[in-house]
Backbone:
């Protein structure tokens, strides 16, 4: 398990690049910068960066275009930067294969947390461990056994499906569309309206009121995220 | 004024019109000369009379009088026997000549007078209409001036508000950041405090932008509802968690019915609406006081209430507090006066209502009512 060393920042705004460079170099990362989408793609090929931070408001290409170009030949983790009001393009890019997103303005703490999650997901090439543990919750994915503070709880097939998907992507955002595709298949638009209801049921079972630890967080307009311990 | 009384009927008493009369009399005389054979000289007098009367329609006082005189003389000289003289033998003819002259003059002048009056009336109407138009355009201009002044005032207020709202947190950020930079010895506690200040001010700044953005999108009609089913209790819990930092100085309580309160609407937009009510409550009620949120179903409606222990709202102001850029006079705390207006707009996008009442003891309660819809039929699954 080797943490990333090289990070490519594709953002046309110099102050943002500077802020990212300062924060990331103090954490020991090597930072490569590009101000346009085309330069970014070129830099990625030349530098073999291990993670890309991609701004969605580039002057030459849309974030989605850059991402699709990258995805043609690389699985490098991509974290997108969005501004408020950009909801639709944010969701599009996530559905197109971006790994996570950050809404400007964001804090360094948030950024570093996203990097850690990306590192973890990239390094686990071997099958993920079958036991997931977070606070009082433990899920045995091979035996389908869910325990809360040692007590077994029962989920419906849908609830379990959502939980398993969130665990597989622990720490990362999972979009509504990803949930739909995974649980009901690609042609199940009518279920969109009910995702919150199912997640609501799941939450009720996993987050007893007294604990109040928000295990599943809602990402406004995007989807859900399972908080990592 | 496009035309004067006289020029309106070509009645300028210039030489030109006298000449015209002269030629017209000559022309009529020639016609009469032809007709004289069939009609006799008396009837030709009537033709001259008709001519003079008609002259009144086209000429002014002088030319009409000339027409009467000239036609009388012509008639006398060429038609009344003995022809070729101005002498009249028969007393009957003399009487007729005299009557002709008087009748021709009077009827010609009367026609002229009537025509003149009519033109004057027309002119007066024209003038009145023009005057009306002038007045109208003046009042329009005045109205526009007032509107412009109002909008300038609004712009000024808005600009003042925005610059205040932006400058205050910016000042705090600059102050705290430069203090951080100049500290020679790193005192962990003061660094933490200064950093906290920077973060809090940045969040406040971000809030201003979010509200401005929301308002702009609402105004332009760009907001598209992304509707889905959700439980109002989940919405409240999510909003409370998101606004944790800004609600930290108040005791927040949330109570709801045990059954889920499903609503079909845009979760994120309603979250903004509720957040604005909560922040409003926190802003205008004393530190340490209680903010009580209640979610319930009442008849055919879902109701969300936010009760605070602030000073309440004067009855006369209740009508205005949901207006854009309205801020209760005399309130010290900053703000653009957009929060409640945005909340109202967002709730109304969902066919809901928003309102406020003063509580009997203390404080006020803001409420959102949303139409109750039959909850979704979700296939019951067995548990695994």
Residues:
């Amino acid at each position: 398990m080797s943490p990333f060393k090289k990070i490519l920042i594709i953002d046309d705004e110099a102050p943002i690049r500077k802020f990212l460079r300062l924060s990331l170099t103090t954490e020991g990362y090597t930072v490569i910068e590009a101000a346009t989408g085309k330069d970014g793609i070129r830099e990625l090929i030349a530098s073999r960066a291990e993670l890309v931070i991609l701004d969605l408001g580039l002057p030459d290409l849309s974030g989605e275009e850059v991402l699709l170009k990258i995805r043609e030949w690389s699985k490098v983790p991509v974290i997108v930067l969005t501004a408020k009001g950009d909801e639709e393009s944010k969701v599009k890019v996530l559905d197109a294969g971006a790994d996570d997103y950050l809404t400007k303005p964001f804090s360094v703490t948030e950024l570093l947390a996203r990097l850690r999650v990306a590192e973890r997901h990239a390094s686990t090439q071997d099958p993920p461990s079958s036991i997931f543990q977070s606070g009082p919750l433990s899920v045995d994915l091979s035996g389908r056994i869910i325990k809360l503070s040692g007590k077994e709880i029962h989920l419906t097939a849908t609830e379990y499906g959502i939980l398993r998907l969130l665990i597989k992507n622990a720490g990362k955002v999972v979009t509504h569309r990803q949930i739909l595709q995974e649980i009901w298949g690609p042609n199940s638009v009518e279920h969109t309206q009910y995702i919150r209801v199912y997640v609501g049921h799941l939450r009720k079972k996993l987050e007893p009121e007294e604990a109040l630890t928000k295990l599943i967080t809602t990402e406004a307009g995007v989807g859900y995220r399972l908080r990592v311990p | 004024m496009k035309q004067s009384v006289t020029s309106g009927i070509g009645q300028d008493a210039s030489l030109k019109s006298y000449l015209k009369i002269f030629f017209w009399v000559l022309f009529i005389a020639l016609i009469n000369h032809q007709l004289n054979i069939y009609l006799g000289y008396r009837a030709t007098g009537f033709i001259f009379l008709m001519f003079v009367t008609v002259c009144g329609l086209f000429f002014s006082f002088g030319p009409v009088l000339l027409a009467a005189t000239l036609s009388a003389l012509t008639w006398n000289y060429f038609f009344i026997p003995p022809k070729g003289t101005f002498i009249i033998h028969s007393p009957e003819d003399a009487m007729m000549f005299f009557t002709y002259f008087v009748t021709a003059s009077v009827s010609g002048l009367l026609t002229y007078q009537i025509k003149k009056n009519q033109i004057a009336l027309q002119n007066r109407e024209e003038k009145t209409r023009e005057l009306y138009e002038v007045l109208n355009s003046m009042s329009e201009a005045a109205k526009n001036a007032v509107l412009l002044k109002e909008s300038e005032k609004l712009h000024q207020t808005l600009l003042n508000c925005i610059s205040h709202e932006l400058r205050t947190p910016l000042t705090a950020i600059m102050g705290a950041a430069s203090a951080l930079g100049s500290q020679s010895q790193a005192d962990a506690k003061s660094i933490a405090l200064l950093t906290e200040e920077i973060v809090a001010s940045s969040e406040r700044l971000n809030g201003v932008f979010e509200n401005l953005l929301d308002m702009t999108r609402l105004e332009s009609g760009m907001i598209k509802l992304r509707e889905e089913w959700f439980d109002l209790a989940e919405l409240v819990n999510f909003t409370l968690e998101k606004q944790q930092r800004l609600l930290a100085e108040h005791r927040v309580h949330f109570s709801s019915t045990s059954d889920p309160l499903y609503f079909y609407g845009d979760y994120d937009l309603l979250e903004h609406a509720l957040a604005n009510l909560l922040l409003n409550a926190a802003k205008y009620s004393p530190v340490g006081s209680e903010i009580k949120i209640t979610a319930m179903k009442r008849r055919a409606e879902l109701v969300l209430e936010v009760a605070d222990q602030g000073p309440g709202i004067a009855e006369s102001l209740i009508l205005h507090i949901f207006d854009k850029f309205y801020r209760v006079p005399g309130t010290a705390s900053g703000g653009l006066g957009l929060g409640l207006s945005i909340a109202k707009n967002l709730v109304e996008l969902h066919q809901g209502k928003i309102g406020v009442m003063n509580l009997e003891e203390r404080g006020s309660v803001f409420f959102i009512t949303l139409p109750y819809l039959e909850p979704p039929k979700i296939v019951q699954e067995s548990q695994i």
About this structure: The beta strands of chain B are 227-231, 251-256, 262-266, 290-298, 301-307, 353-358, 364-371.
